[in-house]
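User: These chains co-purify. Model them together.
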Amino acid sequence: MSDIVTKEQIRRPENLVYSKTKLLTDKALSYCPGCGHGTAHRILMEVIEELNAQEITIGIAPVGCSVLAYEFMNIDMQQAAHGRAPALATAVKRLMPEKIVFTYQGDGDLAAIGTAETIHACNRGENITIIFINNGIYGMTGGQMAPTTLPNMKASTCPYGRDVTTMGNPLRMTELVAQLPGVHFVTRQAVHTPSAVRKAKKALRKAFDLQKENKGLTFVEIVSNCNSGWKMTPVQSNKWMEENMFPFYPLGDIKVDGQLVK
Amino acid sequence: MAKVKGDIVIDIEKCKGCEVCIAACPQEVIAMAKNVNGKGYHYTETVNEECTGCANCAIVCPDGVITVYRMKN
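Assistant: Joint model of the two components:
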């Protein structure tokens, strides 16, 4: 074999190891550069592709940055009223129990306006998968304080940092729903490094496998960055997330097979 | 020992220049281009031949613009 290998020799179909899944449309994502939403969309669609379930999956899009998720995911989608994605997913799953149903929600949608719907859907143990993207801020509306904003974290509505004495404490939705008997699998993941993305993908795969077995509700939180809301570069925000978000929102499984891990 | 040869193809018109792939690349193959694409973003480009086709860059790319090739053997 000659030592010189040209790029044309490498760029052949038989050498392909990774390309964007066909279940994402060719539309450019509407997210800011470096936003974790794009990675979360991609691994979600890769899992659906692995399960060969694109024709039997129905996704529920939220209100927030990911309101246009139905434009990017090349599967059947429906967009719900703000916070009501678990209620809509309940209806879809009950009418069509053979379908795989997931909701894709941000923290403003799931942890603020949709808290009641989320908790009741979890408590009823609906056979759906909830994917919760937590970036600790309202990204789409301009970086206002969210229920998940960390203590002393700056946002446009708390420019001196969140003061817990007047603004309340951050809400750990994932730990909250893990207490409910209808929930079968709860985990918290991230998508900022290659290893974290691989783990998050495995967690999503497990959640969908459990849904196919009708085990109950599966809940996957993905801690994500919001570099424009946090006023940082994408790489800085990923570092900030490791240093500040992960101590408060530790990664890992919280409930497996209906039993709390910690 | 034969060196593992890989290569990446970046869709520069869809790249938003977030630089997450640069931080993820163990071989320091990727760097920002001086030019901008149609949207006005500086895109990423490969600057050397050290790529091993590990696909770390493509796995973290939020916009899925990177396609990875690796020579078998």
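The first helix of chain A runs from residue 7 to 10.
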